Amino acid sequence: MKIMLDLAAADRGRASIGGRRYRELTDPARTVGAMIESDAFHPGRNGRNHLRILADATAVGHHWVDDMLEQVGLADAADRRAGAYSLGMRQRLGLVAALLGEPPVLVLDEPGHGLDPQGIRTLCDMLRGHAAQGGTVFVSSHLLAEVVHLADDVIVINQGRLITQGSLAELQQAASLVRTPDPSRLAVALEQAGATVRLDGDDRLVVRGMPIDEIGNRAFATGIAVHELSPHAGSLEELFLDWTTDPSQPEETTRP
Amino acid sequence: MTMTPLIRSELRKLTSTKMPFAFIAVLIVIAALNAFAAISGTDMDGSKAFISTEADQQSLMAFAFNAFMGAGLFGAIAVAREYGHNTVVPTFLASPRRHRAVLAQLTAVAIGGCIISLIGAGLTVTTVAISLPTTDFCFHVSAGNVARVVAASGFAGAGAILGAGIGAVVRNVGGAVTLTVFTFIIAPPLVAQLANGTASWMPANLANVISGTVDDVSQPAALLALAAWAAVRAVVGLVAVQRRDIV
Predict the structure, then answer these.
(1) φ, ψ for residue A118 (rounded to 5)?
(2) For the whole prediction, is pTM greater than 0.95?
(3) Which residue in B17, B93, B96 is closest to A42 by CB distance?
(4) Pick the CATH number of A169-252 from 3.40.50.970, 3.30.70.20, 3.40.1580.10, 3.30.70.980
(5) pLDDT tens-digit profile of B66-97?
């Protein structure tokens, strides 16, 4: 995210928003609203002044500040030191800062962190509403339940490497369940062909990254009996673990 | 977009915390100490010769070096804390062409440093002027020289730029303060000992030149030299900000 927003340099490659680098945008702060550091405020400065500083820098009227503080329920605390805010209040302050000037694109790092369930619901509604009005919301999160409620498209990055990307619905469906008396040998065969395989019980495999027909063909070619072969819809958590499990760890691997 | 919104934003940053008030509180203490020195201080022989002439009194009021160093600390803290509190992140998001944000920051700290220094000079002159009648000597300094002493302190905005340059490189309040103090107090005598003829070009002497209490360098040369001291640090800070990640 910092590379996207020109806060950090990429080792290689190029990140762009709408086809242009962040620094090349005509009015970057009013095109992209970002929340990268949830504690990016001076603890001795009150919330209203924090937002007014941002409003000044982006030439947004101060009436916006008051409206947004009201909208996220921080109006009563606006003149208190931000350092005395709770985690949830800080998060909301960061969200307001990102929303100043109604940017069409939002880039938010862990926006639900520290919010109570009602706050998360409000956040999801707000971001869904933004997307429904034609905006783009780019969110990073380790809270997978939050992602399920928020995301249409998912990018999975593990240790700096892109693991997979696509629509959440497709990714959740893009697995096959195989029941076989020889799961270990079939797992090896499928992994050698590029599939991601997870042992699920004594005789079942969950296979990703390979069409169901090809799984059947490869099992047949290897001479392994298959008792069941069916599409498998997994939870996002299950998907995430499949994508990010380190194969070098024996307890996580499908290899014998 | 013009620089005006960025400068306004930076000025609001400076005025929306207690830092300027802390500096003003220190200035009040310094002014009070000056008054105390005028009232109670004596030379080694017990006389008050150190306030007997116009030159002596002007020297007592000469605030320019204090102002220059104080403004340097003000600039260093103002910029370094931006990195410490991550408030530099929204700044660079609003202005991803970082040189513009840094120039706005330098402008704001220069204005802030100048104002604080003028307040400090005003307080010092006032307290000395008020305290002198309690001694055997009246206030001898001409209006022109008082104006010069105060105006010299106003040039401390350059000191704030110097400190801001250091803050942008160090990015840590403690480190920036230490390096600023080193630059103003510790390094100059060392350099002057190592390189003959450089003592006149150190900030303390240059500040005294523009205050009119020393004349071993011409006024324009002293102003230029002080500006150069600030400009070098500012350029180093600008380059560092352009090249380094904001993490």
Answers:
(1) -65, -40
(2) no
(3) B17
(4) 3.30.70.980
(5) 889 999 999 999 999 999 999 999 999 999 99
